[in-house]
Amino acid sequence: MANDGKQNFLVDAVELAKQRNDNKVQHFLPGWMRRLMRPFPWLYDRYTYWTQVRRLLSYVNSEHNFFKIPSTSKDIYNSRGDYEHRGYEQETTLGRVNGKIKRVSRRWLRDMYCAYLWPQIDALLAGREKIKILEIGCGNCINLVLIKQKYGPRVELTGYDISHRRIEVARDYFGAELDGVELKVCSATDPVPAAERGAFDLVFSMHCLEQIPFAVQQAVEGVCERSSGLAVMIEPVFEFARPEQKLYLIYSDFVRTLLPTVAYLGYRITRAEPLAIESTLKNQSSIIVVDRRPAS
Questions:
Q1: pTM, 2 dp
Q2: Is residue 181 scored above 60 in pLDDT?
């Protein structure tokens, strides 16, 4: 009986994600009314807050208590194909840019997110011929391809992701564009091997650590300990989120202690602030920069 209970609690992550997507309690106002609210972000925020309350209550009343476990993201991503790449090439989304709600392409948003990395890379390349960069949670490898296109042979690129399927899909999709990029199946929470400590000049994550609420400290250490230069986390920060975004982080069981964890571990934070762009109105994006270089 004990085994049956355990099996019922650790439900299949892929099937549950599909059920939750099919049964969303989302918008309760028609599209034309929501469009009228877009020029007034403060009003749209209040509407979004109540949609999030409704969605949270629908989860509370469901038969499953769903909390992320180490295999959750891996199982979901291993069940999918090139949907991320097709979205990047073709889709638009309702996001927030400089405080205004806009419908923008996913390609443009990705370019803007990566633009937060360019000053960090430029600073490390100043006076140097080449640097080593690692992305934790590289997944679809779009970020790595954009970095390679911009910096060419001046960067040596490596990517880790927990999902072998995402890496396979990325290799098939990009082909020669990933030549020279080392890709490895590895969890963000794996212990850092001695040979990898300080092995990279820049280590970054982008909406990856958010999915690891069960091992925040290990994930932060995995990013920071591998860097001898800068560690950059472009992730949600609970303290910077608006009320509706905090609700989203709670019912999605996303990380809500990222910034306190970085501070608790004693890393030198040189920047921590929300981004001027958000790829969705529900989830909040921030940047945390940790400087691992010896203090002058």
A1: 0.90
A2: yes
